[in-house]
Amino acid sequence: SKKLKGNQAVLFHDELHQHLERRLYIEENLKNAAENDEIFFMYQPQVNARTGKIIGFEVLSRWKSAKFGWISPVEFIHIAEESGHIADLTRKMMKESFAFFQKLRTDCGFSGFLSINLSSKLLTDPGFAEEVRTLYEQMNWPKETLEIEITESVPLFSSEHVFDNLEDFRKQGICVAVDDFGTGYSALSYLHDFPLDKIKVDKQFVDQIDKSSRGEALLSSILHLANSLDLLVIAEGVETKRQLDWLVSRDCFRIQGYYYYRPLGEKEVTALFEKTET
Ligand code: C2E
Ligand code: CA
Ligand code: CA
Ligand code: CA
Question: Among 117, 148, 178, which is best to mutate for testing ligand 1, by the most ligand atoms less than 8 A from CB?
Fold first, then answer.
């Protein structure tokens, strides 16, 4: 058994080493990856289940690295936040997705919105909302077609600048959505104190449909809560017809999930409109 322990230690050492090596690689190569277009963007449609029409898209970052292949945004966004690269990545995401949507509007007549994920780190920067405004104004971007998604987090609610930025966004006519609603920061008072327009109900709640009556009760309460606070709702991670029907029968008709669409590349998005719209 001594031998076994020794092997386990070696194994652990190897795993730790690999983990650190990967992390270091990500940290050191993020900037280059963005410059060399190893990082690009996919767009996941959001659908009005009542009409079947696409109402908007969420832009999601992707990294295909030379060394490790696909690296998930769950992994690299977090590292980008810690290593200070998140501002550059976000700027790239905005520039590219704004330009693409500009084309989608003029070439394909798309009139829905684009939703972007903003790290709470960025919102603690006092001039951030202003910077976003400058970006879309340079591109003649109709601002009422922009949404931002923020996650519940401690930094989000502990900096006064966050509040000012959110207020600034709303004054600009930009919809502010709480992403992964119900999974982060636990106090709900912020729903009432903060300038918010929409909640995105996390997949973990949607997954409870047909599985657990307590889970369904919780999801129902979230929908009621949103309704009574006059917040819009979208459900994410909807994968089945049963989930869809359950949600729609409770008036939650904004839907994002594999049931309708996975995240799509620019060509696939364009093709969508060439086929169905106009
Ligand atoms: P998120 O904002 O909650 O995005 C939804 C994630 O769920 C996406 O994963 C999407 O591909 C996935 N998803 C959508 N529908 C379904 C479904 O029906 N079933 C399942 N199993 N999954 C579904 P993705 O693209 O891997 O992104 C993961 C997270 O990374 C995002 O979670 C977001 O928090 C973060 N992220 C991605 N791009 C960016 C970015 O540009 N900036 C920031 N700050 N965060 C980003
Ligand atoms: Ca999101
Ligand atoms: Ca989410
Ligand atoms: Ca998430």
Answer: 117
